[in-house]
Amino acid sequence: MANLTYFATHIPGRTIQVEGQSYRWLGGTNYLGIGEHPLFKEKLKQGIKLFPQNWGSSRKNNVQFLVWQDLENLFAAQYGHEAAMLCSSGFAAGQIALQFLLRQQPEATYSLAPFSHPAISTYLHAPYDGSRVDWIKAVLEEKPVLLGSDGIRTPWAELFDFSWISQLSPKQYLLVDESHRIGVQDIRLTSPAQIIQTASLSKAYGIPAGIILASKAMIEEIKKEAQWIGSSPPNLAFCYACLHAQEAYQEQQAILEENMEYFQSRLTNNAIIWAKGHPSFCLDNLTIIRRLEEHGFQMNQFSYPRWNDPAIARASVHATLKKADLMELSQLLQS
């Protein structure tokens, strides 16, 4: 399967223009299509009026903005944590949280689940070379102090069972990258271990920012880290829009859930790799990929996460798609 590149003039919503032709767009991780919602657009305009440029300064600058604190409090409350802290990106959030844990536990082993995102790894800490089942078994037997995992496997769509974390101890730390679940699925995790969840907010939430969710004590300590203090803050205008357009997010989440149920209920004898309750799916059948293109659908097709990985065809059922799109799509996916 080949890598494909398109040069777009605007962010795709329901459709994308490719070489002068309009296609229904299945690619990207813009799960909620929040940029299409009138309320989000209105609040973003207000945000740009209040904050017409990026604020590129230290996070400990003596000039601070309440919009960051208010948005952190909102995310902490929504996802069942005592506190939260914003970062410039999801990758920054993962790395800042991980480096903090490694410095706090310099002698500890960091055990990283298979297929975990580079945001929660280092060149010294590669993902486990084996199945997730074997990794969980090893973790429960060896009891490493630091653990890392994605909330869902990507780009191949696979849901993870986290019931095993009830067997962890209070002396252990579990770092979870929730970039592809936050805003789409419930990410709350319960365990005796200390839970730290990080995420990109540029996917479902559509803003250039990342988030770290943890206990109040841990967030206070991470905010003392030079990596966070010296990093750029997230864009104020987009944070303002996210904070004040929560009704838009709720509406888009309801549409997405309805679209997923409608689409997934019609999947029979299909050739896709998908995770029930999540909008993404993958294909490795070139005949069906060509069939979709011939009928006006386009999706992502590129190597990930390494440049020389085999190209993957990945699609998502966005909130912007219409029922007619989903019915046609489900019919075209029959193997």
From TrEMBL:
Q: Which GO terms describe its molecular function?
A: pyridoxal phosphate binding; transaminase activity
The UniProt entry, under InterPro entries, shows: Aminotransferase_I/II_large, AON_synthase_class-II, PyrdxlP-dep_Trfase, PyrdxlP-dep_Trfase_major, PyrdxlP-dep_Trfase_small
Q: What positions does the domain Aminotransferase class I/classII large occupy?
A: 171-329
Its recorded name reads: Aminotransferase class I/II-fold pyridoxal phosphate-dependent enzyme
Superkingdom to which the source organism belongs: Bacteria
Keyword annotations: Aminotransferase, Transferase
Which cofactors must be present for this protein to function? pyridoxal 5'-phosphate
